[in-house]
Amino acid sequence: xxxxxxxxIDAVVIGRNEGARLIGCLTSLQGKVRRLVYVxxxxxxxxxxxxxxxxxxxxxxxxxxxxTAARARNAGLARLETTDFVQFVDGDCEIASGWFExxxxxFAAHPQAVVICGRRRERFPEASIYNALADAEWNTPTxxxxxxxxxxxxxxxxxxxxxGYREELIAGEEPELCLRLxxxxxxxxxxxxxxxxxxxxxxxxxxxxRRSQRxxxxxxxxxxxxxxxxxxxxxxxxxxxxLWGLGLPIVVVVTGLIHPMGWALxxxxxxxxxxxxxxxxxRAAVFAVLGKFAETQGALEYWLARLRGKGRGLIEYK
Length: 318
Prior knowledge:
Blueprint: E1 3-4, E2 7-15, H1 20-29, E3 36-40, H2 47-53, E4 57-60, H3 69-80, E5 85-90, E6 93-95, H4 99-109, E7 113-122, H5 129-138, E8 143-145, E9 152-155, H6 156-162, H7 173-183, E10 187-198, H8 205-226, H9 235-258, H10 268-280, H11 282-308
Parallel strand pairs: 2-3, 2-5, 3-4, 7-10
Antiparallel strand pairs: 1-2, 5-9, 6-10, 7-9, 8-10
């Protein structure tokens, strides 16, 4: 039980077939939270039994319904019923020592805050270029933010008042929730403190591509939901993906077919790599440009599914 100055902190962990990663996650929370809820989404690796053995309350989702991480988090919230704060954690992450003390200090320093997040670090950034890219991605600026990731400490009352996560989203559910929380007057802050250690296990190009594809889907769906609002939620990200991943290739092909010199327009891509490399390095710049094609694929898949009146299934990379 965690009763820091009579403040109740509970945790909701979600996962599926995380194996040893889940055990590490749950162990890192033992003795640090009042209630530990694990929401399982159809694991076949003994995750449910392992979580129960570690003292977690287990919620098993009905897998006859479409699964999303947002739905799993809402199921965890429903089990808690009431508390002061809830720590959301993905099952492939471990909570860093001292995180809760730092997060509560953040809430004390920012009374309007409803979400506090910190630094998520990859456990094995040296294992692959893709893990290293993910580690760099997590390193967002500290201070007031627009959104958090899957790991964050949140005020339970604020999330409940907002109606929780939007369950149909297959990705991008945290920024969408944060947008609604901000509209209700809440603040999201990222503090300078280690929060979690994450094991992305991104070892192959195809995994990285699907992850980028999922981001493009999230951009397009987020823009469709809230793009007309004052925040212009993910409109720029969607346009940027479509420009580099679809618009420019069409222009290059059309002009190249009209005149051989038109193919020279393709040089805009290496030029963009050079430009981006000045602030993020060569490797990251190459993948930033290449990723726009994957993001475009995801965005187009969202719009195609919407035209068909059907939601797209999960885009999983593990």
